[in-house]
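pasting for ref. prot 1 ->
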Amino acid sequence: MMPRKSNVETSVQVLNKHAKSFSLGGFFLPKEVLLDAAALYHFCRYCDDVADGDLASDEKITELKDLRLLLKNPIQSKENQAVHGFHQVAERTDMNYKYARHLLNGLEKDQKPVFIEHLNNLIIYSYEVAGTVGGMMCSVLRIRDQRAYDFAIDLGIGMQITNICRDVKEDFEMNRVYLPQKDNTPLSIQSGLDQSNVMDTTKHALSIAHQYYRSGEKGFRFIPFFARFGILVAARLYEAIGTKLLKKHQANPLHGRTYLNSLEKSFVIFKACIEFWFLWVSYFFTKMPEHDSILHKPLEGYS
């Protein structure tokens, strides 16, 4: 059964308002898949809004714990459009609920000052708040080949690292330092952010993101043909933000939030059109990809 009309309308509105790159990519998805993706985004956005809301930290932790309970009880979630819509999508697509639980793990970490000291911790956090979304999107796209999940998770990790690099200044103001330096020590914030240090650290993080993007794109061949272009567009639009931050702003996120203008988005989509057909043809002449297990070494033993 499809979600109630009010759920669908609300989810699509949330997607269009808060995720322009994803909603633009979603334009190319079949309607049923787009609605399920919108419901998933609505749930993730709702969880994020709880985590970053105006309540005191202890109250937000309580709210997040309540969300865990709602995940366990679909009946009780009916009064919450975001969670109820997620349950309907999860049931319809046979989604593994572990990804939603892991997402909440990451959001709970944000309720205390964050000082990530090691690259492994950055990868774990990026998995929790974004790689998990890649895993859930596999279900939304009706992908049954389990090999696809590792690549989808990598794409989410790459996107999240890009997001972190873009928002260093805003996160710093909230006592959140997600980027470790090359020597795996956290950025020093005692006397503010040193521009040179931040630029070097951001450049290094974007190089890490690049590795995860390249792994993620290997998994495009697992995506059903009808949805592949939409995901490709969303991924390339997001990666282009990191590229612009690196090349135009010399990896300096302190200048302000980096975004793509309409002309830049159009150019990215044009290139994605060419890449889409090139990738499609290449799949006839290349072997199925193997995932680089080194990329998930930080996640070993995670539960």
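and prot 2 ->
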Amino acid sequence: MAKVVLRVKVPPVFNLTYYKKVVDNNQSITQREIRPLIQTIRGIQVIVDSDLAELYQVETKVLNKAVKRNLERFPDSFWFQLTELEDADLRFQFGTSRKSHGGRRYLPYVFTEQGVAMLSGVLRSKIAIKVSIEIINTFVEMRKMLFSNAALFSRIGMIELKQVEQDDKFEKVFKALEGGKLQNERGVFFDGQIFDAYSFVSDIIRSSLKSIILIDNYVDDTVLSLLGKRQGNVTATIFTKTINNQLNLDLQKYNSQYPEIRIELLKNAHDRFLIIDETELYHVGASLKDLGKKWFAFSKMNSELGKLLGLLNLQTETK
């Protein structure tokens, strides 16, 4: 599932000096001021120990020591320590200069809503009790907001997922372009387009990584030369209805100098087919030796590939 990042306009980062003035004047810290301090980590809403320490007007190490003296009250569901990756992500979100998370020698701890409630009993100060109530109320309000907008977030997630899928499709296209393996699904070449047709088939042959199978009843030395454009480790097999003396001679000369091409008899085929790596099937409307001399069409027919390979295997086994 795609990660949904909700961007909400929030007040400036918590201002400790302002907060102390509020407390000194017996005013209440507001949810609006607390809300930017609550983060979602591991799918849970939490607040970082250093931010809590500022709210409670104690040092961070004092806060954590108080917790460690009462560990039986703070299970993992109440507080936990961030990993290096989580801490780095938090620094990235707020900037490395953020006072709350900079200059410490150990990874921060974070407190859940239940952990904040327990803290007020551990610290036992009027400020801690007063602030904890407001923090818990803020947790509750934010949870209500998330639940009430769950459908909206789900739609955002689906939109982002579709965008990821679309990006993946573009990535495949770009890779195909870079590798010279992007081919049209179908098309028509007209008389006189000899070079265009020849280049098109040459590119298909060069794209093969494993094997090439050609079904063509009219084969000569130009077809052997065309198959010679394949990579050196790629096997080549031709199925044709007739193997005459000239073709045999051409084949012997070719195989004596270049990677071998095998030729097998096949009486049942009329059209021309080109199979690449046993994964792509092209129907070609002209013999490879006559490319571009007359109008012909080509099309990709991968849906019929399994059936055609099965018939060829059966033909080979019955010999």
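Residues 82 and 107 are 6 Å apart (CA to CA).
The radius of gyration is 36 Å.
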